[in-house]
Amino acid sequence: MIVTKSIAAARRQVGRWRKQGFSVGLIPTMGALHNGHRALIRRSRRLCDRTVVSIFVNPTQFAPGEDYRKYPRAWREDLTICRAEKIDLAFAPVGRTIYPTGFQTSVHVGPLADLWEGAARPGHFDGVATVVLKLFNIVGPDVAIFGQKDFQQAVIIRRLIADFNLPIRLVVVSTVRERDGLALSSRNVYLDPASRADATAIFRALKWARTRVRRRDAKAAVLRARMKAEIEAAGRFKVDYIGFCNPETLEPRCRLETPLVILVATVCRAKGAAFGRRYIDNVLIGV
Ligand code: PAF
Questions:
Q1: Could you tell me if 239 and 266 are in contact, meaning their C-beta atoms sit under 8 angstroms apart?
Q2: pLDDT digits (tens, 9 = 90+) for 203-256
């Protein structure tokens, strides 16, 4: 496994592989790797001859006051996982490399970024799209692999690829969950034991709603109210939004026809380690 912080070195290495006729998969990450990332890596290794993992906590996707500084960083453990998963190149640039002095050109995402997470975190998806476009430009992958957990992010990256005519295939891998259903996330380390236990209500509520949608026996307002009650019952999580949407446009669906994605965002209210942090999840129905 090659580890580099340098754009030139990453490009040189990918260039060598290209000359040898190898296909390249890229998994953009912010580190603090977990089994969800392992699933993305494994998918890349099945699809491509060479796999690149980028590790970069991207400052431009955090608003002032969000957890950029405290975002979990686990460099050694990340490299251990990358080695164990037999990736070929870990690209871990520093801030100045990605955002050189004088940096002033960004991607602005259109109305897709005004919905849901974008409404709660203005500017977030511009930061994501900018860094992902840079990583695509540096690595030049054939395939880019993202997780379904960040559903809106994946939809926006699909749009970015189409809008910039990038010759990249996007692959979205199903969310990996703990045994009790909690979606794996780098931010789960912030949860104290009581909040960790309560967090399982998020997927419980989603599963319950999915069953009702499949049976076609409920209205969005009814489902939303029950889900909210379930998630907020113990008092440690507050629902920010529950959306029943078209999985391509993310526009809310009036009638619960499939294909449908149910998006949930919550904020942890437990005093202490997890206070104020967002936990999102979703289920996709009929795709
Ligand atoms: O999903 C993430 O970890 C980040 O948003 C990404 C795609 C690596 C961009 O910084």
A1: yes
A2: 999 999 999 999 987 899 999 999 999 999 999 999 999 999 999 999 999 889
Residue 58 CB–ligand 1 contact under 6 Å: yes
Task: Give the whole-angstrom CA distance, residue 192 versus residue 272.
Answer: 8
Start-to-end Cα distance in the chain? 36
Mutate to test the pocket of ligand 1, among 30, 67, 145, 155 (most ligand atoms within 8 A of CB): 30
Residue nearest to atom 2 of ligand 1 (CA): 29
Contacts of 44 (CB under 8 A, 6+ apart): 25, 26, 27, 51, 87, 143, 145, 171
Q: What is the pLDDT of residues 99-144, one digit of tens each?
A: 999 999 999 999 999 999 999 999 999 999 999 999 999 999 999 9
Joined together, the tokens standing for residue 101 give 């002095």
Q: Is 45 in the same domain as 116?
A: yes
Q: Alpha-carbon distance 258 to 116, whole Å?
A: 19
- Cβ–Cβ under 8 Å, residues 200 and 181: yes
Q: Of 34, 37, 108, 124, which is the active-site residue?
A: 37
For residue 112, give both structure tokens.
């897709």
Of 250, 228, 221, 240, nearest to 279 by C-alpha is 240
Domain that holds residue 193: 186-285
* Bridge partners, residue 172, by sequence: 146
CATH at residue 237? 3.30.1300.10
Number of domains the chain is built from: 2
In short, whether 157's Cβ falls inside 6 Å of ligand 1 is no
- Is 34 designated active site? no
